[in-house]
Amino acid sequence: MSSFQITGDQEMGRVDISCEVARSQPINRSCSTIRQIQQVPTLLRQEEHNRNDYDPQVVSLGPYHHGKPELKLAEEFKTKALEMFVSGSNKDIDFFYNKVLEIVNDARNCYARGSTDAYDDAAFARMMLLNSYYVLFGEYKQKEKMPEDNDQEPVHFLDALRRLLVPERDENSKQKGIFFRPSSTDSLKDIKFQSFYFFGQLELPTSCVSIYTKVLYLNLIAYELCPDNVTDRAVSTYINFMRSLVESPRDVKELREKGILFNMLGSDEEVANVYKELNTHGVNNFRIFQDVKEKIQEHYDSKAKTWIAELQHTYFSSPWNATALLAATFLLCLSFLQTYFTINPSIKK
């Protein structure tokens, strides 16, 4: 029976929330037979302006960022989190520590090959135990919101977050008669298009753009790019779709006024730059929004609908334009009548 000791050199890394530390029975299968917590592909780290967005700034969980000096500040709280959870049970710390030791090989297999070689079983078990209880509270708070999936539990935080966002179930758009409205759900897949007689309506999920948005999406894109992760690339596909819509601050302004984008950065230009800097490296799932794109193209190809939309956009987009058009039409009618009666004076008599 081993004894748990808290040392001052424990750092925070990533944790596998699928390999639970408090199982009553040893795990009979290796996490590597399903999926692993991958490291960010080298291709993504080659982009200078996005390089630091993949690294934790305050706290990390697991071996990948273990030992970084800038992450030591949260170590005390991680220890307090463990003590808090243990104090609420009828077991001591050694009980949970030994449970981790029982599954230490399975836990190692959840990470990339060679990334845990620097730690013996005792050190690795201490790291996993401290990290696990640090995120345990937040993981169970989110569990109520997670869609049920009896086939496979989320591998880690990015997988859980992705499932929350993606549950399983050069022309100005106004000039083409396409208007925007918020979707009824927060799912990134909930994009719909309806074409009516005189206009089209595109429904988009709402999104709050803050200082964390770029980091969040870049890491989700990196997660989808990992070769061992089997996903439908929904986040990357959504980003590609939004980048086709958001090309300038004017586009951001329109989506913001429709209640689709919520700007927490300050200026619309900053929001536009966030989408410009989200590089999906060509990853796309054309089947997800294929139906939407086909309906939009059919709307564009309808000459009658686009002509009416352009007429409405040009002359009826504001009360002043409409008033000017009516005044010009009225003057044209007067000029026509005056000319007509000048040519035909007998009719006037």
Molecular structure report:
This protein is mainly alpha-helical and 349 residues long. It is 46% helix and 6% strand. The protein contains 14 helices and five strands. The chain is elongated. It starts with 41 loop residues before the first helix and ends with a helix.
* Shape, per Cα inertia axes: elongated
How are the strands of the biggest sheet laid out side by side?
Answer: 1-3-2
- Tell me what portion of residues adopts beta-strand conformation: 5-15%
- How is the biggest beta sheet arranged? 3 strands, mixed
Q: With helices defined by DSSP (H or I, 4 residues minimum), what is the helix count? A: 14
The helicity comes to 40-55%
Distance between the termini: 119 Å
Total count of strands: 5
The ordered H/E elements are: HHHHHHEEEEHHHEHHHHH
Q: Which radius of gyration do the C-alpha atoms yield?
A: 29 Å
How would you classify the helix and strand content by structural class? Answer: mainly alpha
Which stretches are low in confidence, meaning pLDDT under 50 for 5 or more residues running?
7-32, 169-175
Residue-averaged pLDDT, rounded? 75
Keywords: Membrane, Transmembrane, Transmembrane helix
InterPro entries: DUF247_pln
Transmembrane segments: 320-343
